[in-house]
Amino acid sequence: MTTSQLQNSEYHAFYQTYIDKLPDENLISILKDQKEEFVIFLKGLQEEDLKFSYAEGKWTVAQSLQHIIDTERIFQYRALTIAREDLTPLPGFDHDAYVPASKADRRSLSGFIREFEMVRDAGIALFESFQEEMYCKIGEASKSQLSPRAAGFISAGHQKHHLVLFKSQYGL
């Protein structure tokens, strides 16, 4: 199962930019490779980097890291719910409300690294547990159709999007 196998009907068009950032490879391989790449990136940061924001009103590095982790968890839950054929429409989430509530600026770099690794590992285990037919189930999240495989690719693309921002906007 690769990104080129996704159908546009499996996700909202908004997420195309995230999916476009990914190689046309197997979801599990992408998640594992990204984990390694992102952890190496994070280990190159300093504690003081967490407080940096590239412009007034923009998230700090710490807030962005918490956002990545929160989003990953949410998309894992969406994938699980849909794969298990729970037809309950899943709500959207207000990422702008999550950021201040997270108190991310009080956290340590080692804490972020540990949590990211654990959340990503949980996602890898989740996606590895799915049978082939589970990946293509369709459910509703944020008032749009979503498949578990699309949720996995979106999560990976979202993390890649923020890594690019860390390098281009934050200069890290």
Describe this structure in words.
- The protein is mainly alpha-helical.
- The chain is globular, with a radius of gyration of 16 Å.
- The relative contact order is 0.24.
- Helix 2 runs antiparallel to helix 5, helix 3 crosses helix 4 and helix 3 packs antiparallel against helix 6.
- The chain contains six helices and two strands; from the N terminus they run αααααββα.
Radius of gyration: 16 Å
Helix content: 40-55%
Cα distance, first to last residue?
32 Å
CATH architecture: Up-down Bundle
Could you name the CATH homologous superfamily?
Answer: dinb family like domain
Q: How many DSSP helices?
A: 6
* Low-pLDDT runs: none
What order do the strands of the largest sheet run in, or round the barrel if closed?
Answer: 1-2
Shape type: globular
User: What name does CATH use for the topology?
Assistant: Four Helix Bundle (Hemerythrin (Met), subunit A)
Task: Give the rounded overall mean pLDDT.
Answer: 96
Count of strand segments? 2
Percent of residues in beta strands: under 5%
Per CATH, the class reads Mainly Alpha
- Structurally, the number of domains stands at 1
Q: Major sheet: size, sense and barrel closure?
A: 2 strands, antiparallel
Question: Pairing-aware structural class of the strands and helices?
Answer: mainly alpha
Q: Strand-and-helix sequence, N→C?
A: HHHHHEEH
